[in-house]
Amino acid sequence: MPTWEIEDKFSGAVCGIDEAGRGPWVGPVVAGAVIFLNRNVNSELLNNLNDSKKLSAKKREILFTLLQEEEKKGNVCCGIGLASAQEIDELNILQATFLAMSRAAEKLSQKPTQALIDGNRLPAKFICPTSCYIGGDARSYSIAAASILAKVYRDNLLKDLAQKYPYYGFEKNAGYGTKEHIAGIKAHGLTPEHRRSYKPIKEYIDNTFY
């Protein structure tokens, strides 16, 4: 479970950063950035924060709402950044992820003095010093909060896309390559939101799609 141990290694405004949506075939990659300005926040939030992938969709939604409430109280500072499917195709998914992370950090109302990034790679340029932590979303409150922010925001974006493109099951699969998604592509082709640099989508374009 997350603690403050990593945050306590640094002084100033320490932000956690995580992303959602590197694997899906469609839509943007989304990054969340969170600074806890005051650790005396709703205990339900701290007691339940964890790697977003380990939580149910309902629990993530509850935590997302709690984060928004704490931000309104001035206890938490949140930022969300996106890199589009087109940017993913132009830059590659890693660099697009770094771009989304940078945009999320720049959206924070307070400039961070240190960024804690989930994973094992660091962006070349950032608005503050950075450090990375494998499994950071299960170790750091700030990174765990960022993972919730990114995941819920992206899931909601895909639900909106499902309204616009109703044949692919985006509201259920979040853009991953499920049977329903594959059937949708075969029947209706690609949407403008599909990542054309991804192997399955390239295979469809080349008429070698399974």
Give a brief description.
The chain has 210 residues and is an alpha/beta fold. It has eight helices and five strands; from the N terminus they run E-E-H-H-E-H-H-E-E-H-H-H-H. A five-stranded mixed β-sheet has the order 3-2-1-4-5.
What distance separates the N and C termini? 40 Å
Q: Low-confidence spans: pLDDT under 50, at least 5 residues?
A: none
Q: From N to C, what is the helix and strand string?
A: EEHHEHHEEHHHH
Write the CATH fold name. Answer: Nucleotidyltransferase, domain 5
Q: Assign the CATH class.
A: Alpha Beta
Q: What helical percentage do the residues reach?
A: 40-55%
Strand count? 5
The fourth-level CATH homologous superfamily is: Ribonuclease H-like superfamily/Ribonuclease H
Order of adjacent strands in the largest pleated sheet:
3-2-1-4-5
Structural class: alpha/beta
Strand content: 15-25%
- Report the sheet with the most strands, covering strand number, pairing sense and barrel closure: 5 strands, mixed
The number of distinct helices, counting runs of at least 4 residues, comes to 8
Radius of gyration based on Cα positions: 17 Å
Shape: globular
* Overall tally of structural domains: 1
CATH architecture: 2-Layer Sandwich
Mean residue pLDDT:
95
